[in-house]
Specification:
The chain has 664 residues and is of the alpha/beta class. It has 15 helices and 17 strands. Strands 5, 6, 7, 8, 9, 10, 11 and 12 form an eight-stranded mixed β-sheet that branches. It has a five-stranded parallel β-sheet with strand order 14-13-15-16-17, sandwiched between helices. It has a four-stranded antiparallel β-sheet with strand order 2-1-4-3. Helix 1 runs antiparallel to helix 4, helix 5 runs antiparallel to helix 6 and helix 8 packs antiparallel against helix 10. The longest helix has 102 residues. It is elongated, with a radius of gyration of 62 Å.
């Protein structure tokens, strides 16, 4: 072990350091006391000379005896402490003056230290007077003291004091180190060596305890280690037994793990196959849904084209002069065709929703206005049955929200339509409750309540499935395809909302739709919004200024239908069979509006529109698409081609009149 790392050295080092500091402090105090004593001794000695010499010096000064004055001051300078002595009259006349010769002044070391501590000389002066007249000034006795000898003696004593103190400290350190080494370090070294031998395995015997350490801390430490060594032996023995048992159990566990691993591998393989089959089934289902959506879209296109001709011709025929029976029959046929179109739209919407092709718009809109418009439209049907329809909107509803107003209108119209359909007495109400959320969000709850026939508890979930009615009696009495609520639920699902129904058979129903929409404008300041719709007057005709309209359509029946509707509306019509005919007609004539079919031979409507937009003469003519495709992507394709609006087939004269009024 390194000498500096020994415990005895560390203890001696700390002890000596403390002792040295304390010795230095106490030695400094002793030197300081000696310094003060020496300083006072110099002053006391000179004062004694002054006291002894005062009386004779006073008589000498009184008698002005210069001879005696010289003898007195010469006697004073005989003292090694006095360097110079003088007797002077009040007029500063020197009666006696004696100075010790320079060669008799003792030479001392450390003159700067002496001068700093005591000064080289000190001047003392005593006023002279006679005993019977102390007020009379006879002169002064002045003594200049030489302090160097006394200072040197003080310095010698101080050096000696500090030297002996340091020597005592060093001797104490050596003695203490030797004693601690014998009594502490050496026994600990023996104990350490024994521990190292035990650790190396060279010995298993307990450590012998010296007789001189039987009852002290060294003995207790040695005995504790012997006890600890014995405990380790016992623990090693028990550990050996435990390890033997553990090896047996480990082998058994490994065998079990191997068996379980094989079983788990089999299960994983089976699960992997099942997951793969499930994923294949899922992909097949999605592919089937996409194919079904595409097929329905294609089927919709093929059905809408003849339907447009049928409904258009029926609408044209209805407006001709007919007998009442003929008019009634044609009206019934037109209504049946309209219901067929509605069913086709619902089927197409549901297919698009299930295939994931429907995208919800996020545009700013006024929800209050949307609800009021739905109530105004549906209120006419309610009025025909004599049922009041009320609308109440929460005044806390923000003025402008972000969402899809068309889809929300579709949901509200479906719910109100069902309520009117199944309610024969009482009333129908639409109410909206709004709640503000964080991040400028608004939770909307729309409640549609009716006092109709109600829904049984068992049928309340089934009514949201396609082509499902609450029971067969409802289908027999009310008809319908059973797609309205299924479509409504899918639309709400796409908008991340929920719909639920509470109903009691025979007591009416309440449908609740909850949506979360973005709010972008401050809340309305209305205290309440309540409207009751009960009286309606027919508006199903408006007249416009005669316009020149070009109809581009490859289907002959649809051309005749569109031409007939436009002529009944009072417009001048020009017909074109395809896109090339459209371009030729626009070169030779000018038109106020173009109704453009999208899918045509020779040149389709998209290409024709793009070429018209490239010509300065036709760049600003409004172009409205006429197409049997009703998907959103088709509408977007029309916009990208440069078309201004979109009219889906089959359309009626009212829809055609509205789109013309929007652009002309």
């Amino acid at each position: 072990m390194n000498f500096r790392d020994r415990l005895s050295y560390k203890q001696v080092r700390y002890t000596v350091t403390v002792a040295f500091i304390l010795g230095l402090v106490f030695g400094s105090l002793e030197v300081t006391h000696d310094y003060l004593t020496q300083d006072n001794s110099i002053d006391a000695s000179i004062q004694a000379y002054l006291d002894v010499s005062m009386a004779p010096a006073s008589r000498i000064a009184y008698n002005l005896d210069e001879e005696l004055a010289s003898e007195l001051v010469s006697g004073l300078t005989e003292s090694p402490l006095i360097l110079q002595a003088t007797i002077a009259t009040p007029e500063q006349y020197l009666l006696g003056d004696a100075t010790r010769p320079v060669d008799t002044v003792e030479q001392v070391d450390d003159s700067q230290l002496v001068e700093y501590l005591f000064g080289t000389t000190r001047v003392y002066q005593q006023r002279l007077s006679v005993p019977y007249d102390r007020e009379e000034d006879l002169g002064n006795l002045t003594i200049v003291a030489d302090t160097r000898a006394s200072a040197q003696a003080f310095i010698d004593r101080s050096v000696l004091t500090l030297t002996f103190g340091i020597a005592r400290t060093l001797l104490l350190a050596l003695a203490l180190h030797f004693m601690l080494y014998i009594m502490l370090t050496k026994p600990l070294q023996r104990l350490t060596q024994h521990v190292q031998r035990v650790r190396a395995g060279s010995t298993r015997q307990p450590m012998s305890i010296p007789r001189s350490h039987q009852h002290d801390e060294i003995g207790q430490l040695s005995q504790s280690f012997n006890d600890f060594q014995e405990d380790i032996k016992q623990q090693l023995y028990r550990r050996s037994l435990a390890e033997s048992e553990l090896r047996v159990h480990t082998q058994e566990l490994e065998n079990r793990i191997a068996e379980r691993t094989q079983e788990l591998q089999k299960n994983n393989d089976a699960l992997f196959k099942a997951n793969k089959a499930l994923d294949n089934a899922r992909q097949a289902a999605l592919q089937s849904a996409r194919i079904r959506g595409d097929q329905l879209s294609s089927l919709s296109h093929e059905i809408r084209t003849p339907l447009n001709g049928i409904l258009g011709m029926l609408e044209l025929a209805i407006n001709d002069e007919l007998s009442p029976d003929q008019h009634s029959r044609l009206e019934l046929a037109h209504q049946s065709g309209a219901r067929l179109v509605k069913l086709l739209n619902n089927m197409l919407d549901l297919a698009r929703l299930e295939s994931g092709k429907t995208v919800v718009d996020q545009v700013p809109f006024n929800l209050k206005k949307v609800l009021e418009e739905s109530v105004m439209v549906m209120g006419q049907k309610a009025h025909m049955k004599g049922i009041p329809l009320t609308c109440q909107v929460d005044p806390a509803l923000p003025a402008t929200l972000m969402g899809d107003p068309i889809r929300i209108t579709q949901v509200v119209n479906n719910l109100l339509g069902n309520a009117i359909k199944f309610t024969h007495s009482g009333m129908i109400s639409l109410s909206l409750v709004s709640e503000s959320l964080e991040d400028n969000k608004e939770r909307i709850a729309i409640h549609v309540r009716d006092t109709g026939i109600g829904i049984s508890k068992d049928a309340q979930q089934a009514i949201f499935s396609p082509f499902t009615q609450a029971n067969n009696d409802i289908y027999q009495h009310y008809g319908g395809s059973g797609m309205g609520l299924a479509l409504t639920k899918e639309i709400i699902k796409v908008m991340n909302g929920t719909i639920e129904v509470k109903s009691l058979e025979g007591s009416g129903s309440t449908f609740t739709v909850q949506l979360t929409l973005g709010a972008i404008v401050a809340k309305t300041s209305d205290t309440s919004t309540t409207s009751v719709v009960q009286n309606f007057e027919p508006t199903e005709q408006l007249f416009y200024q005669k316009k020149k309209i070009l109809v581009v359509e490859d289907n002959a029946i649809n051309r005749l239908v569109t031409e007939g509707m436009l002529e009944q509306l009072g417009h001048e019509v020009t017909l074109a069979h395809n896109g090339e005919d459209c371009i030729s007609a626009c070169i030779s004539d000018t038109f106020d509006l173009i109704l453009m079919d999208c899918n045509m031979p020779v040149m389709d409507g998209y290409t024709a529109t793009q070429q018209l937009r490239e010509r300065s003469e036709t760049r600003d003519i409004p172009i409205v698409a006429l197409t049997a495709n009703a998907l959103n992507e088709h509408q977007e394709q029309c916009k990208q081609a440069g078309m201004d609006d979109y009219l889906s087939k089959p359309f009626n004269k009212k829809a055609l009149s509205k789109v013309i009024s929007d652009w002309l």
